[in-house]
Amino acid sequence: MELKLLSSIYRRLIQEEWQGLPFGLRNGRIGLMTFMALYYEFTHNGKAHDLTGKILQNVQKERMAHNATLMNGNLGLAWTLDLFKKKGLIEHDTSLKNLQGTIFLDFMRNHYHSPISLTVEDGLFSAGIYTLMQLPDNDSYERYSVEERIISMIDECERQLNQSIKGFFCPEKLGLAALNSYMYFLKTCADKRIFPYKADLLLSRVHDLYCMLEEKPACDNFVYNYLKSPGRALIHPTNTNSQLLEVLGDIGFYSLLYGLPKMFLQALRQISMPQKDFLLLTIRTMVQNSLTNKTFYGLGYGLMLNTETECQLRHDQA
Asked: Is the overall model pTM greater than 0.85, yes or no?
């Protein structure tokens, strides 16, 4: 049933008039390109491969018209290309390497001149998320260089979590999605032993800010609790199946962004166990209702990140 749902999402998205979509990762062409690339990796579908290439050529030509943000701008393109590289979906290409280099220089220029702006525009600690994606797995000079940048990001994280800019930025007004991005960044640094003492100290500050929040959206609250302690993460009931799908789609997106595929699987398991016909209802909802592209993307990401989703769910429900 999970594969049928994934196929339904693909059939819906392959018909998309993608040239008219926004630019970005969250709800635009880069997000569609990411879905198609992962779908090709998952199924070896030739049409998905061809569309990935067409969109990549398109966004390369248009990138000068967009700013250095993660969700809607060039930083999302650079992050996606790093993801493709790590998954072996693209080969070494001088033009793509030069493109990433140019985006990186724009990003660093923007970061050092107005480092808060990325968080304000994206609603996330974009600088940290992107820099972590650049961290190589091997022990090399490049890794040392990226770790030095990460240490400076931890210092920047400390400033953003503790200092206000009058009339512009206040850490006490950060939303839960932003706090999750700080938590992801700091926990990853602590786990990788990059300035772990300060990272752990700042995680306490994130928790304090979390406790001050009055609004805790379902998806963001699930992600926060999963990052803090996976066993404590629970999906709270929503009014309609469409709303539940939107929450699950958002969790799928953050599972990809934070490299936590099991987070989506846990959410899907919690929903599917009491509602054994949930996936069938999902397919019907997709036909009957107009879900957003970001929901389709997120559901697809989550399903494809968990190649054993179907057999695991069947085992749990047996």
From this structure: yes
